[in-house]
Write a structure and sequence with these properties.
With 765 residues, the chain is mostly beta strands. It contains 4 helices and 43 strands.
Length: 765
């Protein structure tokens, strides 16, 4: 272990600054020969720098030459082989039809929101994601909340569920129907459909809905001008641990005026084994398809429609009291974009979406079925939209303003057929109907304004203000819930959030960011309306509270990032980034044992007293993410990353729940255009800072090694193999749920998979 941390220290201290350059270039627009600022400059598929305000850039390249790629949003990319030269080379970008991937992070460091990261390299992971949440596994600061193989939620800096603003394509949402989150938003889209993931690390923008702990935007693929004509791809994957199969096909036809894309995917995952050979009940099957149609009316005007459906069947949830028999979702979204207008109004963006989730779960495969046959049929609808205007009142000032809406409604019931009690079988089974969501809704309508002001050539100030009107109502309450809360009229909440940040970029080798954000989140539907259901990690019944105040996150953050070239005749360099944050919470929502109330279902079971959701007065969170690495010998790279969170519930004198331990990863790779190999060694510390009121127990630390290799034997064909958990470690993450209502398992945390061999093949045409 000491050697590992010595490597980390050595890496972070390595690197030196040498400024000599041997290649100069300028990027211009074809239509007017004006300079292009902030164009991405790639060498051997790695971003090296960006063009400056006059379109110029400088590089250090080897004498033998390199492959250069230049790209910019809205223009066709340029690919060219270059060698050192004395003259300034000129590159001209041709305009490409606009797309609507819902991009909030454009790759322009001067105009992006502060503390943003962009990630996805699905093909080179060479692993078959259970759902989209698996794509976060290698992102520093993220952890996964697992209830099995299917119901996986991302957690970032100990923020999870509705504390994270997770969306598709800049605003589309699909909320889960199940109160146990058997069907989180990450299950309603094909992982292979995701082109990239954009992350804003805190409440540092007001443009994408009410945000408490951060924004996650899942961007789906859209054809660009380089893909005109008929194109497509097929791929398949296999994992040995569980005998799991994944397949997908994608077909698209694109032209300057229109594009049509269709995809279909099938996943069949079996029960996996942990490092001790114990089989974990976690199998599932899912079928997904989607169709996307885009019309480019003019070079600066586009309309796009996207329809997708997902069908989950026979899903086993090791950490939940029931299994999913059926989970069907349908999502429709419409996007419109108009750019390049003259005058103060520059852009118009509009979005509408609707989603419906139909969910059926039962306990037919569980021990409790001998006493009670339970089945729940529930549904959820999510509808919303957004309109945003981009205004340019002055040369140094840009204003984004608009309004958005999200309307959530849920209903459904649980049917229980009680067949026996503690005394024995009943002469006649007794049927009971329980209202799961009590026919409830939450509507959020928001108005926002966010401005960016250029204080100097290197400094940008961003300020934003947002108002949300949140309306909620329980239209069909259970009798006991109405007795507990006699005043259940429609409720209105008025939430005010805002942000201010400063970004300083003196050169393309260094950036400093400072930010404050006030994120406000009204209670979600579980916290408001759940009535004596077991929805936590423990065995307690939970009761909602429709009178909860909105919780507030006051988050402060400072960060530094940059790169230092090693020499003037190679692309080798030292890279680093860091961010340090502190949050103090107001009205933080937690569930607390209420000794004045007693259990409703199975009243002889323990624990007798239920938990009721309450607001805390005092809680805080602090932590950091740090990374450092080197690109060396042209094709090698080494990176180390650390992430740590500490959270405190000062009212109950314990940690907040679901706080991950210190995590460290060491990554060593070799990467060329047609061949890559990498090793990832993860060190996860023990977690003794726990929430006992949440049912948490201390978690031991563990170390896991993954190896991956990929090759492109000829154009358009990619092959890959991987060995995950190479040393067959038996371990579980602190955020894993415990076994629940499972034969042959006590209430202990679910172990993660043991050694797993994976193979992957993809062909594009």
């Amino acid at each position: 272990m000491n050697v590992n941390y010595l490597l980390v220290t050595a890496c972070m201290l390595a690197g030196h600054l040498i400024s000599a350059q041997n290649f100069k270039g300028q990027v211009l627009y074809e239509e007017n020969n004006n300079p292009v600022q902030e164009a991405h400059i790639f060498i051997n598929n790695k971003v090296i720098t960006h063009s400056d305000d006059n379109g110029y850039f400088e590089l250090s390249i080897p004498v033998k030459g390199v492959n250069l790629t230049i790209s910019h949003l809205g223009y066709m990319s340029i690919e060219e082989f270059i060698t050192p030269q004395d003259d300034t080379a000129v590159f001209v970008l041709e305009e490409a039809p606009i797309n609507i991937p819902g991009v909030m992070v454009t790759g322009n460091s001067k105009t992006d929101p502060v503390f943003t990261i962009e990630t996805n390299d699905y093909v080179k992971k060479i692993v078959q994601p259970r759902n989209v949440a698996d794509l976060f596994n290698d992102v520093n600061g993220f952890s996964l909340i697992k209830r099995g193989n299917y119901a996986i939620d991302p957690s970032f800096r100990a923020s999870q569920y509705e504390q994270l603003n997770v969306q598709f394509d800049g605003g589309t949402k699909a909320m889960h129907a199940c109160p146990n989150r058997m069907d989180p938003i990450t299950t309603h889209v094909i992982p292979e459909e995701i082109e990239k993931i954009e992350i804003i690390k805190g409440p540092y923008t007001v443009r994408y809905g009410a945000t408490f702990g951060g924004i996650v935007n899942l961007v789906t693929q859209v054809p660009d001008a380089s893909e005109y004509g008929l194109h497509g791809s097929v791929h398949a994957g296999y994992e040995s641990n569980g005998g799991s199969l994944v397949s997908m096909a994608r077909l698209q036809q694109a032209s300057e005026k229109y594009d049509i894309t269709g995809n279909v995917g099938f996943r069949d995952f079996g029960d996996y084994e942990d490092g001790d050979g114990t089989e974990i009940p976690s199998s599932f099957r899912s079928l997904d398809y989607g169709v996307k149609v885009g019309l480019n009316f003019t070079s600066n005007q586009r309309l796009q429609a996207h329809w997708r459906q997902s069908f989950g069947r026979d899903v086993l949830h090791a950490g939940l009291p029931m299994d999913t028999d059926l989970d069907d979702s349908s999502i429709l979204s419409l996007d419109y974009k108009l750019t390049g207008l003259s005058g103060s109004l520059k852009n118009v963006d509009a979005k509408l979406y609707y989603s419906y989730v139909d969910h059926i779960m039962s306990n037919s495969n569980r021990p409790s079925f001998m006493m009670t046959d339970a089945i729940s049929a529930i549904n959820a609808t999510t509808a919303g939209g957004k309109i945003e205007l981009k205004l340019k009142p002055g040369e140094k000032f840009t204003l984004f303003t608009g309004l958005d809406a999200m309307l959530i409604a849920r209903d459904g019931e649980r049917t229980r057929l009680v067949k026996r009690n503690m005394a024995g079988p009943l002469p006649t089974p007794m049927e009971f109907i329980d209202k799961v969501w009590q026919d409830s809704y939450i509507n959020d309508i928001g108005v926002f304004a966010e401005g960016k002001y250029t204080l100097s050539e290197n400094t940008i100030l961003t300020t934003g203000l947002r108002y949300d009107l949140v309306t909620s109502e329980i239209k069909d309450p259970e009798a006991d819930f109405a007795t507990l809360y006699p005043d259940l009229d429609k409720r209105n909440e008025h939430n005010l959030s805002g942000t201010v940040s400063l970004k300083y970029i003196p050169s393309n080798r260094f950036m400093m960011e400072i930010a404050y954000g006030r994120g406000v989140r009204s209670a979600n539907m579980i916290e408001r309306v759940i009535n004596h259901f077991t929805v936590g990690q423990d065995a307690y019944e939970y009761i909602g509270n429709p009178n909860l105040d909105a919780e507030i996150n006051n988050q402060f953050e400072i960060g530094f990032s940059g790169k230092l070239p090693f020499s003037d005749n190679s692309t080798d360099r030292f890279n680093y980034s860091s961010s340090f944050y502190y949050s103090f919470y107001e009205n933080y929502i937690v569930a607390v044992i209420d000794e004045s109330l007693t259990r409703k279902f199975m009243p002889t079971n323990l624990p007798v007293n239920p938990k009721v959701f309450r607001n805390l007065d005092k809680a805080y969170k602090t932590g950091f993410e740090v990374s450092a690495g080197m690109d060396f010998l042209n094709h090698f790279n080494f990176t180390t990353e650390l992430a740590y969170v500490y959270a405190k519930n000062k009212d109950l004198y314990e940690s907040l729940p679901l706080v991950p331990p210190l995590t460290t990863s060491l990554k060593l790779g070799f990467e060329k255009e047609r061949f890559w190999v990498n090793a990832i060694y993860r060190i996860t510390g023990e977690q003794n800072n726990i929430s006992t009121s949440f049912g948490e127990t201390s978690t031991p630390g563990y170390e896991v090694m993954d190896l991956r290799l990929g090759v492109v034997p000829f154009k358009n064909l990619t092959l890959g193999v991987a060995a995950l958990n190479v040393f067959d470690e038996t371990y579980y993450n602190h955020l894993n749920f415990s076994f629940n209502n499972q034969a042959d398992f006590g209430r202990v945390p679910i172990n993660d998979p043991g050694r797993n061999l994976s193979a992957f093949v993809q062909y594009k045409f």
